[in-house]
Queue: 2 jobs
Job 1
Amino acid sequence: MTIEPFSDRAVVNRFSCGKRPLDSFLKNKAKKVVKRCEYRVFCANLDGSPNVIGYYALQLGNEGVSELPDARKDNHYLKNYVAFPALNLSFVGVDSNYQRQGLGEHLLMDVFARAAAIAEHAGFYALTLTSLDDDSTAFYKSLNFAVYSAENVKPPKMLYPLEDILTLMSTV
Amino acid sequence: MSNAVIRTFMRWWNALALRNGKLKFRNQREAADFVRRVQNENGGPNAKVLAMRQRYVEVNRAKAGRNTPRFNESDDRAVLG
């Protein structure tokens, strides 16, 4: 199994993970957004096969404070702080034929490794994501991801500190 | 529309946004504090993450060794990670 950057060679039309937004992103949008450099998409394939059995999409982003409550320009504390820098795991999906085999965990660890590599070139606080459903929220919580959106916000936004990722890289 | 009306509307709008509460922090400094607090509470990667990382490293090491990743390497579970 290999994980490689999305390319024209990737066969995505057979991919189905059971979650329509995730399937739709890979099939209909991945090619376009990669070309525009909006996301970087990485695909898992078996033995050099072009069929995608899992993927994830990363984007460097932030929570712009202009979108936050009471974030007016006349607030002095905002003048020097314009963003919350983060690496966003925007999409991650595993084909239904390959679920419950550890591929999702493998992809997440690949994301961690890539986050550590990115951290050598750009500063950010954490790996962030928006949990898709209750099951994924429970999974991420079991790894110590913390919810950083307010309690009433569904689906929750979660983060994992970059420092913990770097500690992990140096430990194992 | 007068400035007073706009200001009143903005006050109401911001109060509403605050009540709806999007995130647990309002600026970068609070975000940094939040992340630091999470990090301290976590006390480093937990056992589950460590085990996941260990499996990831082993799979990559095996792949580098033989360059032909396989299914069913050790038991009934497909070895993917």
Job 2
Amino acid sequence: MEFFRIHRDIPFMRHALTFNVISLVTFLLAVIFLATRGLNFGVDFRGGTVIEVAYAHPVDFNRVRAALDKLNLGEFSAQAFGRSDTALIRLPLKDESSAALSDRVMNALKADDPSVTQQRVEFVGPQVGKELYENGALALLLVSFGIVGYLALRFEWRFAVAAIIANLHDVIIILGFFAMFQWEFSLAVLAAILAVLGYSVNESVVIADRIRENFRKMRKASVTHVIDNAITSTISRTIITHGCTLLMVLSILFFGGETLHYFALALTIGICFGIYSSVLVMAPLVMWMGVSREDLVKPERKVAADKILP
Amino acid sequence: MNRYPFWKYAIIAVALIVGILYTVPNFFPEVPAVQVSSAKVKVDTAVLAQVEEALKGASVPYRGTALDPTGIKVRLPDPDTQIKARDVLQAKLGENYIVALNLLSSSPHWLASLGALPMYLGLDLRGGVHFLLQVDMKAALDKKQDSYAADVRSLLRKERIQYSGTSREGGNVVMRFRDDAERTKARVAIEKNYPDLAFRDTDAGPGELRLVASLKPEALKKVQENAVAQNIQILRNRVNELGVAEPIIQQQGAERVVVQLPGVQDTARAKDILGRTASLEIRLVNEDPGALEGALAGSVPIGNDVFTERNGQKLLVRRQVSLTGDRISDAQPGFDQRTNEPAVHINLDGPGANIFKEVTRENVGKRMAIVLVEKGKAEVITAPVIREEIGGGRVQISGRMTTREANDVALLMRAGALAAPMEIVEERTVGPSLGAENIDKGFRSVTYGFIVLALFICMYYLLMGVISTVALAVNLLLLVAILSMLQATLTLPGIAAIALTLGMAIDANVLINERIREELRWGATPHAALQAGYERAWGTILDSNITTLIAGLALLIFGSGPIRGFAVVHCLGILTSMFSAVFVSRGIVAMIYGHRKKLDRISIGQVWKPSGGTPPPAATKA
């Protein structure tokens, strides 16, 4: 079985402008959604209390809400969570301690329907929420710098800059999706985003590697041709690898349950856009920044490389 | 060509054997158990014998007992017997022992003795409570500064130094004098008695000279450290009462404490017990002849209580409280300067010192009991004899104490006296059924994902695909083995990371296989293609894994809780995948193809060759 029977190099770079316009538009849309709707931060970042309760029968949300209304909780919400017999109750931050709050809620629900059981309580205070938020931003920054530094060291600064632009553009697009659909942005989603960032840089690395190799081998070819060939000859690997990773991620999405739902969703989006951006955003950027054979193939290195080759 | 030296196979074999050994314990089911431990008494073989005897006496069937540094563990056949055994043991052993329900792996003993234990499951998988508590440092400092203000005032009075007033302003104690000589006298006196204070002179016009005393930075730090240490001690005492098998109580950062109680079902009770406050009382012991005997016989005199001392002795204690714990500003373990015996040094604040002086003057030769009252339950920490009148607020308790006991008593006295308020700033409670469900879901995602992935890779790359799948399975094995070996905490995001890592790890094999196909496509011989495929792909694999590792490490540094669980698995998975995808898979290839001198074809699926088109760039040898 061979999926990719490519006769000749696909002239990706000829359409570079088109690809970049597409990604610019997606990017801008994401930014607009982020600016207008903002992220729906989960309890991890915003602070507050989440209580998951299970009933012996499908949840009657009107009754749950009615029972909670009496408690004067402020702006709470009660929603279905994965299954029909499970409800997720979100409570805003209050002066009262979380312990007292969740006990009060459980007592009220028990009084209304004794079959209710508490599955999970998560409470995050405002201070901790702020710290988690700051730490998340720091982690993102550290990853970005780490990757740029490594690629600049291993390849060349143009690759590093192009790769990080391409991949941060993925991150913004994932965030854009979360803003557009108002999906809950939790710590797990942040972890997924950082994992995707590291992962889709792989893609850029593979292509950069091939570009460098091609510069050594295809001595007479133009830069465009070299890049086209590099992308074409790695495209089959790119798609198969991402397909495989996606299989795993979809398995988490379908079987991992509600807790991992948004985590898997962020990964899915990230992987899909990761293919696109590494191939069709990073490569043109490198080209436009004017990468040349001399930048990558140092004369003394070339001699060494020739000796290694059989 | 493509042969593999023996030593490389040896490494693979060792890795596999170690991997299997450490993975296996995860497959043994957990059995109910009861764990006996004690914070107060040493749990030894004598206790073990007592436990066995008690179980036999109550005819509770058990499967075995074991004594290890954490206590005694008794394996039981089913949950009902478990609860019965707990009740029997608690009744028999009394309150000095903690009898907790636990689950133990049923893996054979020799595995456990190798350190091969099942993975440590996080709270989201086994159920339990996680609290992050913040110690109110401002309150702790406030209390300390208040007590200093009172101390300084009484010192000035005692030394007959003329002052016109004292007050507390912010974190400072401000004293006002009319006379510079008096001010200097005050300064010398205070410096001698309270070395933790720093001084500053300020003058607010003629006739009002000021002396400002504030805590030195290192003393400030010590106050904060003590506050956290004391609170941890209080929490420990309380958690012990809950009977949790493997509680975790740790300091996190400068002013926070993490409390994790795995397997706790009654979360409301846990919160209640953690959140309550204790108090310390000093009361006189009733030593009237015959009174204690009478009380033990059943007729407790009015205004008296029978308490048990820590060493088990009964005491009759008067109900009237001579002194409450908030008059104790500090308690430290140390040594008696004359006899060199272990002792506890207690500092009382100004009013406390006056009361104490009076009480001791009137009761020389009698015993006083220091009682810790927690939620209506009183315990006598110690009951020393008053040898003389004690003034000045500095008390020393010594005699019949080991260094450890002195430490404990000091901690308990501080704990009762100076519990800076704590606030729950983060809480994560997971019910046990949700935990089991999470394990199940995580396990299913990994299994189904792996099966589909394996099927696809085997179909697409045929034998090479099978080899890749084997390498991936080895990766999974090693990852689980390392997680078990390190006893890293596995969380639900951690399981997701296992799935994700497998999905990403296949990248290395895809890279290699595609490279081999490419080499074949451009006309390389099968052996050369295998060689080139592995060698050229290696650099790429290394680069791409390092970038992924950077992301993983950042998560590890900045992540907390379940996210850290994700990061740990992610980072370890990257390392194991490099080993298995390159080293192991090449070993298998060498085993299958290496010995064949003439290799016509590799089973890697159809290698499609373009007819015409651009000439291959890599066809010629460089």
